[in-house]
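=== RUN LOG ===
request id: a7f3
mode: sequence -> structure
chains: 1
length: 571
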Amino acid sequence: MRRIRWLLKRAVTGVGGFVRENAIDPLPIRRGFRGYGLSNLRSDAAAALNVALLSFPQGMAYAAIADLPVQYGIISGAIASIVAPLFAGSRHTILGPTNATAFLLFAQFAAFTAADRLFYLPLLVLFTGILLVAGALFRVAELIQYISRSVVVGYITGAAVLIVANQLGTLLGLPRPEAPSDAPKTFFTILQVTLASVEHVKWQSPALAAGTFLLWSVLGMKFPKLPIFAIVLVTMSGIYSLLHHFAGWNLSAFQAYTLADLAPHLPAIGPRGFFSDVSRLIGIAFSLAFLAALENSVMSKTLASRVGDRPDVNQDMLGVGMANLANAFTGGMPASGSLTRSALNFTSGSASRLSSIFSGLLCVGALVALGNHMDLVPKPVLAALVVCIAISVINRHHIRISLAATPEDAAVLVTTFVASLLLPLNIAIFLGVGISIMLYLRNASRPYLAEYEFSEDGELVEADKGKREIPAISIVHVEGDLFFGAAELFRTQIQKTSLDPALKVIILRLKNARHLDATSVVALEELVQFLRSHDRHVIISGAPKDVYRVLKNAGSVEVIGRENIFVNHPR
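=== RESULT ===
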């Protein structure tokens, strides 16, 4: 019993020390206004206006991507922009719905009915926010850097292709039949449903979509700094209104909403009970939290490098988590760090976090003022803009690099991309991450072993294979990680070297060996015992202090012999 109390005390002390050592600032915004003046306020207001002109229509588009009413995307962008700056570390971050999170939500909610989507969305966003806040407190964001970029490129590319396929029906003016509730929405099932209805094409829809594509392309080439998304949406909606009035065009449009429709749907438990809801949503929540943390990490590091700030990815992760918790209780969809809106905020001269808060307040005002006019926006126009966004996130340069750099990167990218088309997106991204980690471990578990000999000048040089200057002595240079994955290969290679009957002494040079663990220590002890049983003597040379410390803690110094271990003392 005393032993158990001691272990519990050690565990509590360890966790407490970890939390104190890795403390997160609960309200970093209070430190952001030293020397703030009227000129800073003007800069923030101007930047906020530019961001709001992009954030409002993008919120509509991302809600359309996720098959949700447009106000869910607008609310998400507005609330996240107001809440996140209170807790995030970056002063230029703008949060809201993004391509990746909308794509993932769309794919996962495909098996839900329209009513179930709206019912379960607040609970899903709540779970996502809780996971992100917990991850920030335990500094999980620092592990994101170990996820291969090829996974992200493959996922984003696959998701973009998937969303283009999903918008084809709307572009062509086709009716959208409900898929079976248990059917996963993949690229091929979407294509099958679309092709089955192709005889019902309304020519006005693709004509209006083509005009949208043309205007987007022209403005993008001629005036890239303008809020193109908002301009195209308003212009094409106006053209459609004229055609509707004078030419009798009648296409599907979005539903107008009132203030009553903006009342939030609070997180609630479904009829099957809490644990059933958790099992149904937790996998999607993990995927959304992982993707939001990944996006936010990339975005915050990108902006920090441009302004010379030091990024704090865990503090930023807290901001994303708190923004999602707020969205769960105000009726928004999942939020993440938006690189496009954050970059616009930076280039527009943002001076502080207030620009994000101001842009959120502007979006709230527009949300209330423009609700009755949403039925003026034809669905083919927004579908065309969604396709433009999807195509723009396919980064051909990154794809080329991933395919050409190494076979492992190419395998990860292709696997993740194909899985994104064939499987639900949350499975596809974790499959890509799993393969990426497996390939990394395979490479890391292959330490470099080479025999060395002394040259005529007395320097250590790599020996020719099979030609040892002194047959009785083998100097083996070990370089790389000697963790559990490499232990067996390390032992096997040394045993193979020891088969030479002329060999009497093996000198293991561990100067560049790293990350020795329990498995490797056991393998080293067994190797020493094996060699001694075959009348071979083992000497460890140039052992770094951390390697020697592991051997000493494990009691292996006595097994090997203290006189046989020579520690490296760097000058």
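=== NOTES ===
The chain has two domains: 40-439, 448-567.
The first helix runs from residue 2 to 21.
=== END ===
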